[in-house]
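Attaching the record inline, Q. Sequence:
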Amino acid sequence: MKKSTILHLRFPFSFFLLPVFLLACATVEFQNNAHLILSFFILHFLVYPASNGYNSYFDKDENSIGSLKNPPKVTKELYFVSLIMDAIAIFLSFTISLEFTIMVLIYGLVSKAYSHPSIRLKKFPIIDLLTAGFFQGYFTYLLSIVAIQDIRLSETFNYRIQMPGILSSVLLISSYPMTQIYQHEEDARRGDLTVSRLMGVLGTFHFIAIAFTVANMGFAYYFVEYFGFQSVIGYFLCLSPILVYFGRWYLKVRKDRHEANYTYTMRLSLISSLLLNGFFLYLWLS
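Structure, as predicted:
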């Protein structure tokens, strides 16, 4: 396999999507450990990298993309490898359940619509935002619950499961435009009107601040109800470095729009992922 193919699969990027899976682990009681491990592998080592590779093949980015500062040129190999990884993911999913398999298949098809030229959701900013938020948040959360708890999808329709699923989508919607904030020029060159381009640099920051606040107020209410007040204190302690970094970066961008660049974006993503993963892991294990 070529080095460029491995790089474009962007395995480290799966770490940024891990909080949803860990939240699912933390919010269910019974867990099928074999299915937990297998679903973790399927999502983070097959489905997400395959989606990254497939979209990279059609985007053919020349500037920085998520977790890849200097993307090499893509080859046809990347296209076939991403499809093979999807096929392996679907095959392994059958060992968990048919419903889980169908959900993995749906996720893969939707992720391909993001960049495929015949659909290319990136050209439709609001649809793109809502689709990414729904499938990377709520849908992935329920997909994980179905595997981890070894239940049918119909059994997930209760408040304890639905509430964090919905909130995870709000959280993803609040962070998704940030992944586009440094790509305005390249997106404009391709004719892609992303939601971040639509709102502008400062508008993106303002939107994220509002949506992030709504999501975390919802999580605070949920944690108080099911995990106690101490969990909320721990949650906001974890959030505080994120808020400080975001605030300082915002002030820099107000003075110079060029500060809305790849380096600052990836730092924010890394800090957020580390802290949220750490908190949800603590919540799960405790």
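Residues 33-59 form the longest helix (27 residues). The chain is about 75% helix and 0% strand.

More tomorrow.
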